[in-house]
Structure formats: structure tokens, C-alpha cells
Amino acid sequence: MTGMAFLSRAVFRRALVLPRSAIFQGTRKNLTLNRFYGTKYDEVKEITDEEFEDVIGDSTKPTLVDFYAEWCGPCKTLGPILAEAVEKDGRVRLVKINTDEYQDAAAEYQVSALPTVIAFKDGKIVDDFVGMLNKKKVEEFIQGVVSKSEGK
Fold this sequence. Notes:
Blueprint: H1 9-17, H2 20-23, H3 27-30, E1 45-46, H4 49-57, E2 63-68, H5 73-89, E3 93-98, H6 104-108, E4 116-121, E5 124-130, H7 135-149
């Protein structure tokens, strides 16, 4: 009983007599991780530190690099939004890099918070943002990246 010392006796007793469905009722709504898997974001190319310079140096179109980590909740929400917006626009490409596995690129660009998205064109930073953005703001960000990349 030492592991459950933080539960009051009344709460513990209710948990024992409640049907299993009542205990877990509504928890599916709270699992934001389900929105991350099985989306277009799964298909986004994951790059390594070794590939980083080659990928951002590609001059065909602006490249958005999503710096993320598996444990980061906002990253899991932002990823599918980014993937959908990039697919919809078609003028930029999206790659992702796991900062837990590949730390050199994150250190080089001073990524200190997640999620961080940096837009590159010809190896140079065009724009960036840190934190969670909604779909509309992500689409506006992409429009801005395209405009800056084309020199407008």
C-alpha cells in the first residue's frame, strides 16, 4: 500500500468497485499521441546530422526543418499540421530531425526549445518559429517563406 499512499482511502475504494469502463471513460479523448501516428507526418523524410547540410543546401525549393523529439507533446500536434500545410502549398518541402538522436544540427542552430521550425533556402535561414502554431498561422508562415525566398 506504500505505492498508493497518495490516494485517499475513499478514492482507492471507489476505484476498486467501479466498472473498468467507468475508470477509463473519456481517456481516449486525452490521448493526443493518436493524432500523430498514421498521418502524413509519418511520411515526412527524417534526416540525420550527416544529411543536414546537403538537404538545406538544395536550391530547388525552400526547405522547412522541423526540430522535434518523441517526448514533446506540442511537436506531435504540430507535425501533422506542418505536413498537411506543406502538401497543400506544394512550393516548400518538409523534413524532420529528432533532436534526441541528432543533436549537432540543433546545437549549430541554437535550438533550445521544441518544436522549432527553421526555413532554409540555398543553405541560408529564411525564417523560423518556436512553439506551437495553429493551421492558419502555419499556412501564413509558409506563404511568408515562399515570398522571402522569391525575393518579393
